Amino acid sequence: MAQDSAQQAPTTAPAAPARALLPLILPALVVGVASSLLFVGVSVAAEKLQGVLWQNLPDALGIGRYSVLWMFVMLTATGIAVGLVVWKVPGHAGPDPATMGLNAPALPPVVLPGLLLAAALMLAGGPSLGPENPIIAVNVGLAVWLGRRFVSRLPGGLWVALAEAATLGALFGTPVAAALVISESLAGKPIKGLLWDNLFAPLAAAAAGALTTDLVHHASFDLHLPPIGRPDGGDVLAAIVVASVGALLGMCAVYAFPYLHAAFQRLRHPMLMLPVGGLVLGALGALGGPLTLFKGLDQIAELARNPEGWSAGQFATMTVVKLAALAVAASCGFRGGRIFPAVFVGTALGLCAHALVSGVQPAVGVAAGVLGMLLAVTRQGWVSLFTAAVLVASPTTLALLCIASLPAWLLVTGRPQMQLHDDGSPVR
């Protein structure tokens, strides 16, 4: 009996002593600050180049800044420029971006300059991708390389976790996003010690990255939409329907993704794949308008400033065009991430729902649309919930989103993801 009781007693993992965690604080803070500064530096440089390419240059040539002609010229030229980097720069700007997710491998140092240059050109040129994947990959590569050289006593896996957490903190302006992503990645894996011990150093890095970004760049995700009052049954129904529609729409792009990737791969050379991809993006930009260009964060702020400024048909067009542009840009070889443009797609979908049914509050529609779209595109439940909630900055919305996430998750779980294996088959 005593033996049976001992076997049934729960086991508790021993907590790490403070002396084991204290030496991790300084490396975590250094990685956090450095990762944030690299992210901000690339973002600011890309914004300056964007101003030259999309304002100064067309003004000097007497061409409309966002005319159809200039969209075709700039997006095709961006494809040529990135194609040259992928073709000629040592390291070829890293692996095929269609195979990359938020969890980046530690790339060798020779790859990192080309990847950073390709990402900056992409951000400035207008393709519908965000900075997250390449910036995380560069920060991970630098952290592992420098960490092994100067602090070799720490394991290489720690530097990966610190850099990923720091970059996520810098990107979202809060360490909470990093903690959620790391917690999700640890689920189902054997971990040594308590969960919070494993989060201690990455959370410090994420906090340093977030604070640095806030101090030097003043980024904010809050769209300042009209606040939500006391939710009722209509709000619950709206959140469920919009999130489910967003998930289904996102899955359309997910299922099309491997076929688009295979079509571009038949061109075989980056100097064909990327310019042709730029040409297709130019056509999509002409169809959807200038708001469907670039990573999408500045554009969703413009939509949110005037939710009544476009018709339901215009919102629907922007939704479909931006989603198609995301799938094309990610499959033809542009170096970038999928989260930020997916946020634009979800925002446009939510505002379309509001334009169709006035009873759908803009904040509810936007948050639910972003939730459903991110669940389909990223398959990261915590990131999807967090991003959707932070856009409207309302505690009330979080409860609605938790309810809406259930049917949306059932629509996406177990199905292909918008990420491919090296052989071109979708990750599940």
TrEMBL record:
Keyword Mitochondrion: no
Keywords attached to this entry: Membrane, Transmembrane, Transmembrane helix
MF annotations from Gene Ontology: chloride transmembrane transporter activity
Gene3D superfamilies xref list: Clc chloride channel
InterPro entries: Cl-channel_core (IPR014743), ClC (IPR001807), ClC-type_chloride_channel (IPR050368)
One CC-aspect GO term: plasma membrane
UniProt-recorded name of the protein: Ion-transport protein
Membrane topology of the entry: Multi-pass membrane protein
Main location: membrane
Top-level lineage group: Bacteria
Annotated compartments: Membrane
Segments crossing the lipid bilayer: 20-46, 67-87, 107-126, 157-182, 194-216, 236-260, 272-293, 313-332, 339-357, 363-378, 385-410
